[in-house]
Design goal:
8 helices, elongated
């Protein structure tokens, strides 16, 4: 598969004018987040990682973004999004309810917890949750579609794209401090932003992106 931004590594900006010391500290903290759960139990964390792996499968060519660990750290540290759908319980409670419910649904249908069933079976349960078709008592009367769309999906996707590995894949330069961005129109980019590869120009683009700071 052709890379969209070949040769681009956002972390190469570390000592460039694009990032200041505060930006470096924030990103270092994010990269050093513990991989072992502190909020979830070990069993809950296995289910969480299985869900993350099916919602956002990652390429084998590089280390995966630790989505589950990022969600666990967010809940452990009590970091919110600044808003919450009034129909949902607090994030930690919503996640624990959802993980228990997915395990209960998997045991009812397949005889084992969610993380132990086949990927196709996991996808089937996730699709059913998204469609609001799951109603095991473990959901405690909550709408599975609401939990999936307003808590699970949002946290998984936002965690993934909050990690520098994902930034490199989409050509994002990271926090705009202190340099910021100037050329904000469509199809325009600042010279310190990554260049997207065009057909037949991947090698040239790789060299250009390796020089970006």
């Amino acid at each position: 598969m052709t890379e969209r931004f070949p040769g681009y590594d956002v972390l190469a900006k570390r000592h460039s004018p694009s990032w200041n010391e505060k930006t470096r500290r924030v990103i270092d903290t994010r990269l050093a987040a513990p991989r072992e759960p502190r909020f979830f139990t070990a069993a809950e964390f296995r289910t969480l990682e299985a869900i993350c792996g099916r919602i956002l499968p990652q390429p084998a060519r590089r280390p995966p973004v630790p989505i589950g660990a990022m969600i666990d750290a967010k809940l452990f540290e009590g970091r919110g999004d600044g808003y919450r759908d009034s129909r949902l319980p607090p994030a930690g409670e919503a996640w624990r309810l959802s993980l228990a419910a997915f395990d209960a649904e998997a045991r009812e249908r397949y005889g084992c917890d969610f993380d132990a069933i086949d990927p196709a079976e996991q996808d089937s349960l996730l699709q059913a949750a998204q469609n609001g078709e799951l109603s095991n008592a473990a959901w405690r009367g909550m709408d599975s579609a609401l939990l999936f769309s307003k808590q699970i999906l949002l946290d998984v996707v936002m965690s993934y794209y909050g990690h520098p590995t994902a930034w490199s894949e989409i050509g994002f330069g990271g926090p705009a401090s202190p340099r910021g961005y100037v050329r904000m129109d469509f199809d325009r980019r600042d010279p310190w932003e990554a260049a997207e590869a065009k057909p037949g120009r991947e090698a040239q683009t790789r060299k250009a992106n390796a020089r970006i700071g």
